[in-house]
Amino acid sequence: MAKRKSNTSSLDEAIKSLLKAYRLNDKMVELDIVKGWPEIMGPVVAAKTISIKVNKKVLVVELNSSVLREELSYGKAQIVKNVNDFLQQDFLEDVRLK
């Protein structure tokens, strides 16, 4: 008896397809970054972070410390690398600190 070709996809593929169809990919990545922020940047930076948003592949981080903001401004490329490494994909292109 011949096997029928399955028309089903894996759950992972189906979820990715839905996220793409409803344009939710960036929002899911943003949630991953927010959730992983303490691991990505450490507890000190996480404690000084007010909000994190992603807008057109730019990470916008609002901090409550001007000293920390100034210090992190010198390491924007490293922040992009750390976040992309955490996500295991080249997603972010820049960081904006507020």
- How far apart are the first and last residues' alpha carbons, in Å? 65 Å
Number of helices: 5
Biggest beta sheet attributes: 3 strands, mixed
Name given to the CATH architecture: 2-Layer Sandwich
Tell me the strand order in the biggest sheet: 1-2-3
CATH topology: GMP Synthetase, Chain A, domain 3
Total strands: the figure is 3
Q: Show unreliable segments.
A: none
**What is the highest CATH level, the class?**
Alpha Beta
The helix fraction, in percent, is 40-55%
Radius of gyration: 18 Å
Name some characteristics of this structure.
three-stranded mixed β-sheet; 98 residues; single chain; GMP Synthetase, Chain A, domain 3; alpha+beta
Description:
With 98 residues, the chain is an alpha+beta fold. It has a single domain (24-97), classed as 2-Layer Sandwich (GMP Synthetase, Chain A, domain 3), CATH 3.30.300. It has helices spanning 11-21, 25-41, 43-47, 66-73, 76-87; strands spanning 49-55, 58-63, 94-97. It has a three-stranded mixed beta sheet with strand order 1-2-3. Strand 1 (49-55) and strand 2 (58-63) form a beta hairpin. Helix 2 crosses helix 5 (76-87). The model has no long low-confidence stretch (mean pLDDT 88).
Walk me through the topology.
Elements: H1 11-21, H2 25-41, H3 43-47, E1 49-55, E2 58-63, H4 66-73, H5 76-87, E3 94-97
Parallel strand pairs: 2-3
Antiparallel strand pairs: 1-2
Helix pairs in contact: 2-5
